[in-house]
Amino acid sequence: EFCKGVNGLDKVILRESRGSSAEVYLYGAHVTSWKNDHGEELLFLSSKAVFKPPKAIRGGIPICFPQFGGLGTLDQHGFARNRLWSIDDDPPPFPTNTLSKAFVDLILKTSEEDSKNWPHSFEYRLRIALGPGGDLMLTSRIRNTNSEGKPFSFTFAYHTYFSVSDISEVRVEGLETLDYLDNLQNKERFTEQGDALTFESEVDKIYLSTPTKIAIIDHEKKRTFVVRKDGLPDAVVWNPWDKKAKAMADFGDDEYKYMLCVEAAAIEKPITLKPGEEWKGRLELSAVPSSYCSGQ
Ligand code: BG6
Q: Which residues form the signal peptide (predicted)?
């Protein structure tokens, strides 16, 4: 289903037969909503989000490409999240063993403007699909389309903002004992001690070489988000907390309580593609009642 969203921007709504849904803006190929079959919103979207190019939308799932972070000549988190993507009207079919019918393929290619700062030819296909159980699946395929034999490298993240009922009641499992780079301490490397992560102040860490499965447990909501990722070794955990929240114009002062970013990423070791080569990075999100998870 194709329609107009905020400020007349084009969006696609995916609906799955049991009632779950997702909304995707062509601007940024940005997933702004993912609802379960009870119609409950699972992603955080700021009430102050600006739906106006060239500003990236605050919340949902921004795509960070071809760069995570703010180094070098590229904009913070790259340009993919503030470009207009196009829909592929004739996408390649799903493998026959997948049941999903609710999906859309969005495409971004090299533009003259972007090649000034990032002089490479690429084609990026992002498939966004809803599984039969309401799972949200994002598959990125990035190809080097340069014919002159030039490789390129990039870093990447699915900058997912999960909606939580109270950040101080949230626990993240799957990152304990791992090494991380702390963005709040000059990207210095540390090792996470102890048990599951909990939150009582600003956090901005890049966990390295993580397991493919991470769980975000929302005690108050009795809901667990399960993040499964493939081709994405790292995971960023970010919450701006009160001070930084106040400093962000497109983020409410108290909204840090209701969100947590857990971002499947490839950052420490950039991906390099030779001409003709393709990289694939997959993210699968599910939301299940917490009781279902206990004892697993
Ligand atoms: C996180 C980074 O992924 O994104 C943070 O680790 C950054 O350092 C945050 O502040 C938000 O970035 P932006 O560009 O969307 O404001």
A: none
